[in-house]
Amino acid sequence: MIPTSVLLLLALGAATSDEAEREKGSLLYPYGLDQGDQKNPKLDDGTSPKLTLTVPFTFYGKEHQSLYVNNNGVISFDAKVSQYTPDPFPLADGRPFVTPYWADVDNVRGGDVFYRETTDTPLLARVTQDINQYFPTTPFTATWAFVATWDHVAYYGSVSEKGNTFQAILTTDTKTSFIILNYWDIQWTTGEASGGDAETGLGGTPAHAGFNSGDETNFYNIPGSQSDAILNITQTSNVHLPGRWVFQVDNFKVTGVPTQPPKVVDINNCWL
Fold first, then answer.
1. Residues 211, 245: contact at Cβ < 8 Å?
2. Contact, 78 vs 96, CB < 8 A?
3. 3-state secondary structure the chain
4. What angle do CA 116, 48, 37 make, to 5 degrees?
5. Cα–Cα distance, 241 to 243 (Å, whole number)
6. Of 116, 138, 157, 239, which sees the most CB atoms within 10 A?
7. Using CA atoms, how far apart are residues 38 and 136, in angstroms rounded to an integer?
8. Which of 110, 240, 246, 107 lies closest to 168, judged by CA?
9. For 202-253, what is each residue's pLDDT tens digit?
């Protein structure tokens, strides 16, 4: 017979796990093979094939009909991105891309990179509800979305079990476009080849988050990018939900967002 104390611990563990899953579901949109996702190859600095979109996505006034999901935390429109040490925006070479967490991911050592294009009605309804909440003066009903998720991905040179889970959603009604960046669990900032510590995944040149239009003028760096403070991005927000950043990107529009990075050690720090 299993002792009562053990049963109690198991029950508490299950309750904690259930609570964590509920919280995860409130931030991350559904992903994985059971959602019809494709999965990137296990390849350091790898990428998806060129993905032709069924609906053009307008990014800074330009329609894009294809993209790449790059293992190193970048969604790019014109070319693959194998670069593992991030550069600050604006980029001198004019590459347009969205980067939820640009750093040296190594999915050979751990984790998976998922993606899918979707017109799933329940998902679009949820996206629409969220966008309408965050941008109440902008009429919007999502008709298309692209969901990319980096699930517990490891860093290059890792000798730890650390993994990062984050997500990027591109969505449009064919005229107005938004990106949603979700950060569920961030445990490391830097790969070993970017000067990071193999045991901690910290130091060196830390990850960069934001987006770059490609015109050297319009861009956004999420505060804390390329500093130790990016580790706390799960506690920051511009839409009153820790770990979520949302932007309208069909034309350059960044309003109501903080300009200072988060404190490195204060896990309760969140911009609202």
1. no
2. yes
3. CCCHHHHHHHHHHHHHHHHHHHHHHHHCCCCCHHHCCEECCCCCCCECCCEEEEEEEEECCEEEEEEEEECCCEEECCCCCCCCCCCCCCCCCCCCEEEEEECCECCCCCCEEEEEEECCHHHHHHHHHHHHHHCCCCCCCCCEEEEEEEEEECECCCCCCCCEEEEEEEEECCCCEEEEEEEEECCCCCCHHHCECCCCCCECCCCEEEEECCCCCCEEECCCCCCHHHHHHHHCCCCCCCCEEEEECCCCECCCCCCCCCCCCCCCCCCC
4. 25
5. 6
6. 116
7. 33
8. 246
9. 999 999 999 998 887 888 999 999 999 999 999 999 999 999 999 999 986 6
* Close Cβ partners of 200 (under 8 Å, ≥ 6 residues apart): 160, 162, 188
Sheet of 244-248: strand order equals 38-39, 112-118, 144-153, 164-172, 177-185, 244-248
Contact 183, 234 (CB under 8 A): yes
